[in-house]
Design goal:
With about 300 residues, this protein is of the alpha/beta class. The protein is built from twelve helices and nine strands. Strands 1, 2, 3, 4, 5, 6, 7, 8 and 9 form a nine-stranded parallel beta sheet that branches. β4, α5 and β5 (about 125-130) form a beta-alpha-beta unit. α5 (about 115-125) packs parallel to α6 (about 155-165).
Length: about 300
Amino acid sequence: MMKIFDAHCDVLYKMWLNNKISFKDSDILHVNYENLVFAGSKVQCFAIYIPESVRFEDRFNVALEMVDIFYERVLNDICPKMKLVLEKKDILQLHKDEIGAILTLEGCDAIGHDLVRLKTLYRLGVRSVGLTWNFANAVADGCREQRNGGLTNFGIEVVQLNNDLKMWTDVSHLSERSFWDTIELAQFPIASHSNVYSLFQHPRNLKDDQIKAIIEKKGIIGISFVPYFLSENYQNTHIKDILNHIDYICSLGGEKNIGFGSDFDGIDDTINGLEDYRGYKVLVEELQKQYSNEQISKFCYQNFVDTFPN
């Protein structure tokens, strides 16, 4: 079975909305423990996403609530084979039946203007930091901010702290100017869940020069399973649409820079054949029609492991 490293899901957000959801087997979740085991998951990233509806003064506390969900309801006795990942060695030392879990931050809204909050989240296990969601915050502008501003002075400090702590800096959701400011500074850049703009012109997708810049910095692009990032025919997307984005990045020299960041549980609509995490098995079968097992292993697992910074 092919090992899977998925760089983005919103399980914690769903479980924060509904405290009755069981991570073990809830059919409300795209990503649950049983689905991970079925499809061959080896590492799953769990995002802390704070919705816009949360008052600014409450956002850090909500982030802490999601951290608590991660430890109490994901890493718990019900799912004893889920293991916390803080360093690369934790991935490499996973037993055959164990699945690594990485805590990530989607957007720095939770930290406000306070680096101590970011350091606190690091100490609690966060190992990847997305600077924005779609809009502006104290760090940078997101891809839906019309002014297309770049990193703020505070944002520069955030990226430098990520470098010092050896955390991934995630460029997904950034405005173009913020992207270029970040890619210049970040030592460990990734796009955890972003696709190809040339194939579908959505503001969340990456243009060719951005893809090439990530390749140059030895970063990884996690292809997302969001239908409306994949094709203009987003109401009827198929796994072939994912392969089109993989093919395109490979054509730019990015075979070693491709991964997957499904965005499961952050989406309502799904791709035909990829309705939940179990669909990774079908995706692998489709990849095998076109790529070698060595290449598929890179896409599904090894590329993200190789770039894990600590």
